[in-house]
From TrEMBL, chain A:
Superkingdom of this protein's organism: Bacteria
Protein's UniProt keywords contain Zinc-finger: no
Coiled coil: 198-246, 375-469
Protein name per the record: DNA sulfur modification protein DndD
Keyword line: Coiled coil
InterPro entries associated with the record: P-loop_NTPase
Protein's organism: Desulfofustis glycolicus DSM 9705
TrEMBL record, chain B:
Protein name per UniProt: Uncharacterized protein
Organism in which the protein naturally occurs: Desulfofustis glycolicus DSM 9705
Taxonomy, superkingdom: Bacteria
C-alpha cells in the first residue's frame, strides 16, 4: 500500500532555537510543495533539524540521548525547566501529533503520540509508517551536507536497507523470519528435528518390533506346549486311575482319601473366609485397638464432642436482631457469635460423630477384649483346618505309595504325572515373564508383552512426529530458498536500475566531473574513487535520492539543511531544478547567501506557490523595523517568524552575532 | 479422592488376590491389611500417584458397614502421632475438622485420604518386613498376619500401648 506522508508543521518552546510555531498548510488544508525557511546561522537550524529527526524517529529514547545532551537543549538564560517540540503530521490523510516533552531537571524526554484512538505516552506511530519512522530512514528525508557525506561511508548509512524498505522488498526478509518463528513454535516441544534423530527412532522401532515379534512367537510356542503337556497329564491321570481300579481295596481307600482332601480343602477355604471377614472388624484384631476406640468414644463424651448445638445454630442466630435470651444483637455481638461459631462442629460433622460413637458402642458391646478372643478362637480353628488338610494329604500320599508298591504300571503313571506337573510348572513360570508389567528395564531385558506393545506404540508415534517434522523442515527450506532468491533478484534489479538512473542525473548535474555510482551496498559505492568534494557528494546524494523517491510509490517529505551552500554556483541552478521534483513536500533551511542561483531556479521550476519564511532571534532592531505587514509575522518571547517572499528576499544576515 | 494401593503392594498380594483361587474377595482386602500394618507401626510413606492404583472412593463390600470404625481407628492413630490425649477437646476438634468430611463417601477429607493412603503405603513396607516371602495361601497369610500384629503391638515401644490412655 502506498504511503502518503506530510509534515503539517511544528512548534518549539523553551529550547535552544527561538520559540516558533510554523505551519506548512495552505488554506485548503493541503501543504505547500516547497517551503523555504531562511534562518541565519546560529539561530538553531541544526537544533531544529535534530529535534525534527528525533521527533520522527523516537531516537530520544536511545542511549545517545543522555541527560547532558537533553540539558544542552535548554534555552540559554531561561528559568524554565521544561521545554517541548511538537510535530504535526498527516499520515495517509490521518492527523498524527508527536510531542517531545523535555524535563531539564531530570535530563529526560518523554514522547506523547496522538492519533485516532487518543493520546498515548510513548513514541507510537501507525504500524504502516514504522519502517519510515526510524533513525536510519529519517536521515534520508531529513537531510544535510553531513549526511550526504555519510551516504558514501559504509560506517554511517544503510543505503541498501533504505532501498529495501522503500520498495518493500524487506517484507520478503520479514517473511523469512516469520517462517523461522513458525518453525520454532511448531517444533519447540519436539526433541528431534534432524535426520540422525529420524534414523535413531526408526532403528529403535525396528528393534522393538523385532523383539516383540520374537517374544510373542515364544509365548505362542510355550502356550502350545503347555496345552499339549496338560492334555498328556490328563491322559496319564486317567491311566493312573485305571491302574488303581485294578486293586479293589486300595482303590476304595484312594477314593475316600481324595474325597477327604477335597472336603478338608473346602473346610479350610470356608474357615479362611470366616477369619478374613472377622479380621475386617478392626477392633477384633487387637484389644489395644478396641480399647483405643472405646477410650476415644468415652473421651468424646467427656469433652462433650459433638456439642449439643451445631455451628449452623450460631450462624443463624448471628443473622437475628434479638438473641434467644431476648437481648438485642448488635454488630459487635454478631461478630463475636460468628467468631465463636467456628469452635462448633457443623451439623453434618455432629451427625457423623454421633454415628461413629454409636458404631463403637455397638461393635464393642460390653467387653473390649471379647472381639479379639473370638478372632483368636477362629484362627485356632483355621490352624486346625489347615492341619486337618495336611493330615488328609499325607493319608492320600501314603495310599499312593502303597499303590505304587503293588502295581508297577500305576507307579510308572504316577512318576510320569509328577514329571508332567514339573514340566507344566516350568512352562507356567516361563509364561509368567510375558505378563510382567515392569517398565524399569531396557528393551532387550523387558519380557512384558504389554509393556513392549506400549513401547512400540510410543516409538511409532515418535517416528511419525519426526517424519512430520522432517517434511515441515523440507518445506521450510524450500520456501525460504524461493523467498531469498526472490529478494535477491528484486534487490539487484531495483538497485541496478536506481544506480543507472542516478548516474544519468549525476551526468546531467556534473557532466565534466566523471563521477558515477558503481553499486549500492551498505553505502553508495562510487566507480573508481571513494568520495569527492562536499559539493560533489551533495550532488550525488540529490541525484540518488531524487531517483529513489521518484521511483517509489510512497510520498515522503524531504527536509534539507542548506541544500545548495557547498555547491558550485554553476551547479546550483541544476540542483534547484532537481530538488522540487524529489518529493511532494520539500522543506529547506537556507541562509541569505544561498539564495543566489538556487532559490531563483526553484522558483522558476515550481509551478505551485512557494512558502517563504524568515525566522530570526529577537533583538535585531534593523531587521525588526523592516517588518511592515504585521499580518504576516508571528512573534514569540524570543523570536520572529515572517511570512512572504518580499521580506525573504530582502533579508541579509548569514550569521547571528 | 480415592483409596490408592501401591503397585508393589498389589504385586506382593498377587497369589492371594481376588483373581486367585481361594483368595481375597476384593482389592480393598489387600489395601486394608496394608493400612492396618501401617497404623500398627505408625509408618507412613508418600508415593507418586504413578506408583499406585486407584481403587474406590468408598468402603466396599464387607467394609461398607465397618467404614466408620476404620476411620475412627485412623483418627486415634493420628491423635497418638500428634501426642494428643483423646480428652483434649480443642486438638480432637481440630483433627476431626481437618481429616473428616461427612459428605465424602469415605467420610475422609482430601487431606484425611492423603494421610490414610500414606499409612497403606507405609504398611506394605511393614508387611515385607514381617513376611520373609510374599503370601502363597490365604489361610497362612491370615494366621501369620495376626501373629506378627500381636508381636508388634506387644513391643514396649509400640505407641498404641502408650497413647491410648484416657
Amino acid at each position: 500500500m502506498a504511503s502518503n506522508f506530510k509534515i503539517l508543521g511544528w512548534k518549539s518552546e523553551g529550547l535552544r532555537c527561538p520559540d516558533h510555531n510554523i505551519s506548512f498548510t495552505r488554506g485548503d488544508s493541503s501543504v505547500y510543495e516547497i517551503s523555504l525557511i531562511q534562518m541565519p546561522n546560529g539561530t538553531g537550524k541544526t537544533t531544529v533539524l535534530n529535534l525534527l529527526r528525533a521527533a520522527l524517529s523516537g531516537s530520544a529514547y536511545s542511549e545517545t540521548w543522555n541527560a547532558s545532551k537533553v540539558r544542552g537543549l535548554k534555552k540559554r538564560n531561561s528559568d524554565h525547566n521544561v521545554g517541548s517540540f511538537e510535530v504535526k503530521l498527516s499520515l495517509n490523510d490521518r492527523p498524527v501529533t508527536i510531542i517531545m516533552q523535555f524535563d531539564f531537571d531530570s535530563g529526560k524526554v518523554i514522547y506523547k503520540t496522538t492519533r485516532g484512538e487518543g493520546q498515548k505516552t510513548g513514541f507510537d506511530p501507525p504500524s504502516e509508517f514504522k519502517r519510515f519512522l526510524n533513525e536510519n530512514f529519517v536521515n534520508f528525508f531529513v537531510f544535510d551536507g553531513e549526511l550526504a557525506q555519510n551516504l558514501l561511508d559504509s560506517n554511517h548509512t544503510k543505503a541498501e536497507k533504505i532501498v529495501d524498505d522503500l520498495f518493500q522488498i524487506s517484507t520478503l526478509l520479514i517473511l523469512n523470519n516469520k517462517i523461522d518463528e513458525y518453525w520454532q513454535k511448531v517444533t519447540q516441544d519436539r526433541t528431534a528435528k534432524e535426520w540422525k534423530g529420524f534414523k535413531r527412532r526408526a532403528s529403535k522401532l525396528t528393534n522393538l518390533k523385532a523383539r516383540l515379534e520374537n517374544l510373542e512367537k515364544e509365548q505362542r510356542n510355550l502356550n502350545q506346549r503347555l496345552e499339549e503337556e496338560t492334555e498328556r497329564l490328563v491322559a496319564k491321570e486317567n491311566i493312573y486311575k485305571e491302574e488303581i481300579k485294578k486293586g479293589k481295596n486300595l482303590n476304595e481307600r484312594h477314593i475316600k482319601a481324595e474325597t477327604d482332601v477335597k472336603e478338608k480343602e473346602a473346610a479350610l477355604t470356608d474357615q479362611s473366609k470366616i477369619v478374613l471377614d472377622n479380621m475386617a472388624d478392626c477392633y477384633s484384631l487387637s484389644d489395644l485397638f478396641s480399647t483405643a476406640l472405646y477410650n476415644f468414644k468415652v473421651s468424646l463424651d467427656r469433652v462433650k464432642l459433638p456439642e449439643s448445638a451445631a455451628r449452623e445454630f450460631f450462624e443463624e442466630l448471628a443473622e437475628e436482631d434479638v438473641c434467644v435470651c431476648d437481648r438485642p444483637i448488635d454488630e459487635n455481638i454478631r461478630k463475636v457469635i460468628l467468631e465463636k461459631s467456628i469452635q462448633y462442629l457443623g451439623s453434618d460433622d455432629v451427625s457423623l460423630l454421633n454415628a461413629v460413637k454409636t458404631a463403637i458402642t455397638e461393635a464393642l458391646g460390653d467387653s473390649r477384649t471379647e472381639p479379639e478372643k473370638q478372632l483368636k478362637a477362629m484362627i485356632e480353628s483355621l490352624s486346625e483346618a489347615s492341619n486337618n488338610l495336611l493330615d488328609a494329604k499325607n493319608e492320600l500320599d501314603e495310599i499312593k505309595i502303597e499303590i505304587a508298591k503293588e502295581n508297577p504300571d500305576a507307579k510308572k503313571a504316577q512318576d510320569e504325572i509328577e514329571a508332567k506337573k514339573i514340566t507344566i510348572r516350568d512352562l507356567e513360570t516361563q509364561l509368567e515373564r510375558f505378563k510382567s508389567d515392569d517398565t524399569s528395564l531396557n528393551d532387550e531385558n523387558t519380557y512384558g508383552i504389554e509393556v513392549l506393545r506400549k513401547r512400540v506404540e510410543e516409538a511409532e508415534e515418535k517416528l511419525a512426529e519426526i517424519a512430520n517434522t522432517m517434511i515441515l523442515r523440507y518445506k521450510r527450506d524450500r520456501l525460504q530458498k524461493i523467498i531469498t532468491n526472490a529478494y535477491q533478484i528484486a534487490h539487484d534489479n531495483i538497485t541496478n536500475e536506481i544506480c543507472s538512473e542516478a548516474n544519468d542525473h549525476i551526468n546531467d548535474l556534473m557532466p565534466y566531473n566523471d563521477l558515477s555510482i558503481d553499486r549500492i551496498d551498505s553505502c553508495l559505492v562510487l566507480k573508481g574513487q571513494t568520495g569527492g568534494s562536499t559539493g560533489e557528494q551533495l550532488s550525488i546524494a540529490y541525484a540518488f535520492l531524487s531517483t529513489l523517491f521518484n521511483r517509489s510509490e510512497h510520498k515522503l517529505p524531504f527536509v534539507v539543511d542548506s541544500p545548495a551552500n557547498p555547491i558550485d554556483l554553476e551547479v546550483r541552478p541544476k540542483i534547484g531544478a532537481i530538488i522540487p521534483k524529489l518529493s511532494e513536500q520539500f522543506i529547506a533551511f537556507t541562509i541569505s547567501s544561498e539564495r543566489s542561483g538556487f532559490v531563483d531556479a526553484i522558483v522558476q521550476q515550481s509551478k505551485m506557490p512557494i512558502q517563504f519564511l524568515t525566522l530570526f532571534r529577537k533583538g535585531r532592531t534593523k531587521l525588526e523595523d523592516k517588518i511592515t505587514d504585521t499580518s504576516l509575522f508571528n512573534e514569540t518571547d524570543d523570536g520572529f517568524c515572517i511570512l512572504g517572499k518580499d521580506y525573504f528576499d530582502d533579508f541579509q544576515l548569514d550569521y547571528e552575532e | 479422592m480415592p483409596f490408592r494401593l501401591s503397585n508393589d503392594g498389589e504385586k506382593w498380594f498377587k497369589d492371594i488376590s481376588k483373581s486367585s483361587k481361594n483368595g481375597f474377595q476384593t482389592d480393598f482386602d489387600a489395601y486394608y491389611f496394608c493400612f492396618i500394618a501401617g497404623i500398627t507401626c505408625g509408618q507412613k510413606k508418600t508415593l507418586p500417584v504413578s506408583e499406585t492404583r486407584e481403587l474406590v472412593e468408598y468402603f466396599p463390600d464387607r467394609f461398607r458397614t465397618r467404614g466408620k470404625l476404620i476411620v475412627s481407628l485412623f483418627l486415634c492413630r493420628e491423635l497418638i502421632e500428634l501426642g494428643v490425649q483423646f480428652n483434649e477437646k480443642k486438638a480432637v476438634h481440630s483433627a476431626i475438622t481437618k481429616l473428616i468430611k461427612p459428605e465424602s463417601p469415605s467420610y475422609l477429607s482430601d487431606e484425611g485420604m492423603r494421610e490414610f493412603n500414606k499409612y497403606a503405603n507405609g504398611g506394605y513396607e511393614v508387611l515385607t518386613e514381617w513376611f520373609a516371602d510374599r503370601p502363597r495361601s490365604l489361610d497362612t497369610f491370615l494366621r501369620l498376619f495376626k501373629a506378627k500384629l500381636d508381636q508388634e503391638l506387644n513391643k514396649e515401644s509400640n505407641s498404641w500401648a502408650l497413647g491410648i490412655a484416657v
